[in-house]
Design a protein that fits this description.
6-stranded mixed beta sheet; 1 helix; elongated; binds copper (II) ion
Length: about 160
């Protein structure tokens, strides 16, 4: 076998070193573009509650849909085995909806495919997520954290209605 010259070795080294710099730089750029450009953010803790006292704790003492402005709504949602309260949400098309949600018992999930809602409902913790419904139709709400024997029945729907 022929021995590689110093220059060839230098090129090989360069071929490994450059991507090892370019890849993290590319990943950082992708992170910044999605975080600030596309507005994607990781849901974080939006507050703490005592899961045993949800019935007396604002806003979970009145679960349901509240209009907060023209085409903006807040959904106060509680997950518990094996239901969402409310489990049917009606909003007009084009609405911005903020889900303020928590769990009464074990860890549940709040997942609305097609609506960019995907958070965990953790007892003691308030999850807050904002989305907009731009299409008339029904969106399925699913619990996507295994929460017991009837986990698969835990669901609901968002009904997006045409504006009259
Ligand atoms: Cu569940």
């Amino acid at each position: 076998m022929r021995q590689g010259s110093g220059f060839t070795i230098y090129l090989y080294e360069l071929a490994w070193i450059l991507p090892s710099i370019a890849i993290p730089v590319g990943m950082l750029a992708a992170l910044l573009v999605t975080a600030f450009g596309a507005g994607i953010h990781v849901p974080s803790v939006a507050g703490r509650v005592d899961p045993a006292k949800l019935a007396e704790t604002v806003p979970f003492d009145t679960p349901g849909v509240v209009q907060t402005g023209p085409l903006s709504y807040e959904v106060r949602l509680v997950g518990q085995i094996w239901v969402f309260t409310p489990n049917e949400i009606r909003v007009p098309v084009g609405s911005t909806v903020v889900f303020v949600a928590t769990s009464r018992d074990v860890i549940h999930g709040l997942f609305i495919p097609g609506a960019n809602v995907n958070v965990m409902l953790i007892p003691g913790q308030v999850s807050r997520v904002k989305t907009r419904f731009d299409r008339v139709g029904e969106f399925f709400i699913a619990c996507h954290e295994y929460c017991g024997i009837a986990h698969h029945t835990m669901g609901g729907k968002v009904i997006v209605e045409p504006r009259s």
